[in-house]
């Protein structure tokens, strides 16, 4: 059985948020999103899926070992964990990763998490509709991207599946397709900015 990651124990019925990302480097925005997601979407834990490399990004990130170590060092919450399972499954596309994880853990309730910038371009992801059909999707505000996200093709096509934010706590148990956008106090931080400042050696 493929384990999600070191020290990660998943039990039947558990509501697990998956935050896929390049984490190149991980930062306060990831942590803040994860803590808000735990509260707002009624999740038991959040797992950071450190990607081998975003298929839509031309430049390769720093090594997975470097990004995993930085993520572990940053996390200060007992229910936020880090996983390199995509590297081990050899899946780069989220649709494939979710298909594999749902097969491996049929009794676990996964929710895909992302910042609003990713909803804006979600319709460009490989087999994106299969993601919507497979798991609930929780979206959290990100500075400057609220409007482009809510007017994006994916948001429009799946309008009937949108859960109002006042019932966001039900998302982790919702039957897909279901998605929910929640506002949160924003953190204007990005990996791009940290790389530009030279705070990360990649
Ligand atoms: N400050 C933030 N507020 C809300 N969501 C965020 C924030 N930073 C990252 N995210 C979300 O976390 C996930 C992983 O993000 P990623 O690792 O690409 O960080 P990033 O800062 O967006 O990196 P880059 O600047 O290199 O694109 C994405 O879904 C992204 O939308
Ligand atoms: O599957 C796809 O086509 C796809 C396209 C773009 C991004 N993703 C995933 O989205 C997550 C966020 O990526 P990033 O680089 O914005 O942190 C990460 O898990 C990527 O693998 C996935």
UniProtKB/TrEMBL annotation:
Biochemical pathway: Cofactor biosynthesis; NAD(+) biosynthesis; deamido-NAD(+) from nicotinate D-ribonucleotide: step 1/1
Catalysed reactions listed for this entry: nicotinate beta-D-ribonucleotide + ATP + H(+) = deamido-NAD(+) + diphosphate
Enzyme Commission designation: 2.7.7.18
Catalytic EC class: transferase
One GO term (biological process): NAD+ biosynthetic process
Domain Cytidyltransferase-like: residue ranges: 18-196
A Pfam family the protein falls into: CTP_transf_like
Gene Ontology molecular function terms on file: ATP binding; nicotinate-nucleotide adenylyltransferase activity
Annotated coiled-coil segments of the chain: none
CDD domains named in the record: NMNAT (cd02165)
Name this protein carries in UniProt: Probable nicotinate-nucleotide adenylyltransferase
Origin organism lineage: Bacteria, Pseudomonadati, Pseudomonadota, Alphaproteobacteria, Rhodobacterales
């Amino acid at each position: 059985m493929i384990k999600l990651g070191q020290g990660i124990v998943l039990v039947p019925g558990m509501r697990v948020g998956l935050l896929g990302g390049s984490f190149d480097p991980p930062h306060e925005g990831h942590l803040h999103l994860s803590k808000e997601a735990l509260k707002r979407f009624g999740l038991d834990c959040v797992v950071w899926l450190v990607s081998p490399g975003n298929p839509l990004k031309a430049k390769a990130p720093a090594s997975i070992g470097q990004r995993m170590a930085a993520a572990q060092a940053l996390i200060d919450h007992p229910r936020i964990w880090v996983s390199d399972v995509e590297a081990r499954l050899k899946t780069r596309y989220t649709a494939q990763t979710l298909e594999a994880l749902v097969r491996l853990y049929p009794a676990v309730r996964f929710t895909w998490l992302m910042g609003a910038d990713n909803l804006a371009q979600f319709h460009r992801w490989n087999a994106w509709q299969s993601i919507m059909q497979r798991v609930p999707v929780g979206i959290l505000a990100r500075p400057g991207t609220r409007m482009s996200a809510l007017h994006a093709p994916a948001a429009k096509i799946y309008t009937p599946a949108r859960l109002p934010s006042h019932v966001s706590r039900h998302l982790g148990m919702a039957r897909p397709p279901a998605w929910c956008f929640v506002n949160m106090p924003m953190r204007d931080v990005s990996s791009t900015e940290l790389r530009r400042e030279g705070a990360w050696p990649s």
